[in-house]
Amino acid sequence: MRNAPDATKRPVNLLINARTLELAKELGLNLPQTVDTYLSTEVQRRYWERWNDDNKDAIDAYNARIADEGLPLAR
Predict the structure, then answer these.
(1) What does each C-alpha distance from 43 to 25, 35, 39, 50, 58 come to in angstroms?
(2) For 27-54, how does the pLDDT look when each residue is reduced to its tens digit (9 = 90+)?
(3) Could you give the dihedral angle defined by the CA atoms of residues 49, 50, 56 and 58, in that order, rounded to the nearest 10 degrees?
(4) Could you give the CA distance from residue 36 to residue 43 in angstroms, rounded to a whole number?
(5) How far apart are CA 32 and CA 16, in angstroms?
(6) What is the pLDDT of residue 7?
(7) How far is it, in rounded angstroms, from Cα 55 to Cα 20?
(8) Can you give the chain as a three-state secondary structure string?
(9) What is the pLDDT averaged over residues 55-74?
């Protein structure tokens, strides 16, 4: 999964807590950029979490084989 900073952007509608939005504006936060950055980070985290879950059996089997036989190039 790669981050695509130059990807085409699309408008979306969000409902955000009014007080949070007010404070974000007072702090000079760029709301679209901030949301995009945090959403991208969360998407990547969940993608790799799912990938690890989907490949758990293969990863465990590989690790067990290395524990039993050692690393192939270590001999």
Answers:
(1) 25, 12, 6, 10, 23
(2) 999 999 999 999 999 999 999 999 999 9
(3) -120
(4) 10
(5) 12
(6) 78
(7) 39
(8) CCCCCCCCCCCCCCCCCHHHHHHHHHCCCCHHHHHHHHHHHHHHHHHHHHHHHHCHHHHHHHHHHHHHHCCHHHC
(9) 93
pLDDT at 1 over 60: no
Q: Which two tokens stand for residue 13?
A: 């509608």
Q: How far is CA 18 from the centre of its chain?
A: 27
Question: Measured between alpha carbons, how far is residue 16 from residues 19, 20, 24, 49 in Å?
Answer: 9, 7, 11, 27
Instruction: Give dist(CA 60, CA 64) in Å, integer.
Output: 6
